[in-house]
Design goal:
This protein is an alpha+beta fold and 157 residues long. The chain has a 4-stranded antiparallel beta sheet, with no helix packed on it. The chain has a 3-stranded antiparallel beta sheet with strand order 3-4-5. Strand 1 and strand 2 form a beta hairpin. The longest helix is centred in the N-terminal third of the chain and has 21 residues.
Length: 157
């Protein structure tokens, strides 16, 4: 905004106008998602999963066709967040002169995060990959025993 056109050529008005203009840029830096956030959001959106609750466990199933077990990672973060991640890499053995006519299979990093409930037993998590399907099983903790009422003897005074 040019304050001289309004007849306000005072340095104080110029400083205030500069602060007002720069506050818009400052606000955008806090509301614009970071590159890491956008990358993680894309990786999570492109990784579909099935989640089942069974009487004694929770089962997470994710399709992982063509991946080796060393390209997959199953972790617990922040106490109770199950993170399933990995990377599907492009084949390196391409011959010279080969040109893709269509490339539809997803390549790159993938990730899913699941907040586990309080009754999840974090010590008994298993992960098995069979026929391109990763199955992560989290056993449930046994339910707490109900507290029995405490009987207090009434004495005669």
């Amino acid at each position: 905004m040019d304050l001289r056109m309004l007849g306000l050529d005072n340095p104080l008005f110029s400083a205030l106008a500069h602060l007002a203009d720069s506050s818009d840029d400052h606000e955008k830096s806090f509301t614009t998602p970071t590159r890491t956030y956008v990358r993680d959001a894309r990786a999570m959106a492109s990784t579909p999963a099935d989640v089942k609750e069974l009487p004694s466990s929770y089962v997470f199933t994710i399709d992982m066709p063509g991946l080796k077990t060393e390209d997959m990672k199953v972790q617990i973060e922040e106490g109770n967040v199950l993170v399933i991640s990995g990377e599907r890499k492009r084949p390196e053995e391409e011959k010279e002169g080969v040109k893709y006519l269509r490339m539809e299979r997803r390549m790159g990093k993938f990730m899913r995060k699941f907040v586990l409930p309080e009754n999840a037993n974090l010590e008994t998590i298993s992960a098995v990959c069979q026929d391109g399907v990763l199955t992560v099983t989290v056993q449930k903790l046994p339910p707490p025993e109900p507290k029995k009422p405490k009987t207090i003897e009434v004495k005669v005074a």
